Predict the structure of NADPH-dependent diflavin oxidoreductase 1.
Amino acid sequence: MRLLVLYGSQTGTAQDVAEQIWRESRQWGFQGPVLSLEDYDIQQLVEERLVVFVVATTGDGMEPDNMKQAWRFLLKRSLPSHSLSGLQFACLGLGDSSYSKFNYAAKKLHKRLLNLGAKSICPLGLCDDQHDYGHLGTSLAWTAELWNTLSNTLAVHKQKEPMIVKRWNVRVIEQSPPLDEDRLQWTQRQEAHVFKLAENTRTTAADHFQDVRLLRLERSTEAISWQPGDVLEVQPQNSCELVKDFFDLLKEHQLQFDASTVVEVSSAHEDLPLSLAYSKPLSLQQAAKYIWDLSARPRQRLLEVLAQNCEDEMEREKLLEFCSAEGLEDLISYVNRPRRMLLELLQDFRHAMAKLTLSQLFEMMPLIQTRSFSIASDQSAKTLDLLVAVVNYKTIMHTPRLGLCSNWLKDLEVGVELRAAIKPGTMTWPKEVQTPLIMIGPGTGIAPFRSIIQNRLHLQQLGQNVGPLVVFFGCRNRSKDYHFVEDFTAWQDNNCVEVHVAFSRDQENKVYVQHLIRQHGAHLAKLIREQNAYIYVAGSSNNMPKAVREAFIEALDNDASYIDQLIKQRRYQEETWA
């Protein structure tokens, strides 16, 4: 029987969960592919009988990029309400309850499928990244219930013998791989542009705990353009130190492959498309540098593959225990809480590592995912600017935890060329430039607002009548982490932008952006009610968005329903990140 697994994934987690469900489906005797929603012809959904959807929510309740096209089709008003009456489906959502629009993409998809006549065979699953066990806290039980339901309704049975389901066939070949430059071009699906790094400076004081970088990128051609609120998507690379550690590990265990080994990868299934990263022959050196995420937290699939050939009973039992529901607490304590890296796990399980095959290596390694950063300048400026907080923190592990992309960007030297793609952000701006904008962007959240302010001031110089611009910025200290201080000073001196800055640690009582919003509540309420101002919030998704929303509710006579109305009208927008 055919079972189709479709996923919408932004960071790779939903894809990982979908592929695990697909592998388990083989154990239950099902056939059918696992595909991203953009790789599947969504018009064929009317022909399907059984589909499992795994969908992540990104940004402010948005669907992932590889789901957008399919979602647009499903929303067509011309689709009859009985279009999918022959379809039975199950839907699992991956989200984060620290965001107000928790699991919106999955909730909307589930509701739309029902509206089109499809029948849900089990309750909508809502995974929460805030759960102690992350998405596994929901996905494992939900998947078990899915198989239980299908077993009862379709009389399918699970095979007793464990079944090894692999995605790829890997063949060693005797030829030179493509040049590194070619490899970088095809690791990104969308059109990438070439930029030259003109500046890479630290914007925070040397003794400040957080290293934040301003990167200025020069365009290779004037044809490269962007809008305020757009993001730049980059494909990071592993550091030379990580790559060396990886190959030192292979050498230590005297495995039959090394950095110079060149392979050709093909799909092990007719209906499973080959990953774009493997579409050309590659050396292991290239895979370790550009393709595999060596600093990733190991997922259960890696542990499962690592256990396959392990002859040491204690190591094998531990790896398989980590893959079970019963071993979840131990897995979280070993991997998630200390933020243990993939390479560190491989060093711990020495007997399993010693028996690793080349095919298993490709099967278990996670791919580097692209990262997106808000563009912090208008295209009328000479450069495309990024404001990047460098991730570097300590856990109980011996070495600090380093964010892959932010540290790669930090170490780039001026003059280097990099490839990156420009994508639309989640923010939408009012069509009339006379409409007032109220922007709240503490920390690196200021980036998209610098872009729209530059844009509006450029239009003003061209003679257009631009509405009031009000910006709230927050940081710890005026002397340590006041990003874009020159811009703020110039805007204030020229009386072209109303600027409010909260320095939380420069006085005895902490002052945050929400306190300043309350201070100027009457003025802001007038802009919102009388001039239809739009409100934008960007920055950390911890406590700030909720505190800011409460401050605006207070400013609007404690009318929470009015804020809800603004959100529905897209006059109150949030772009936050964990």
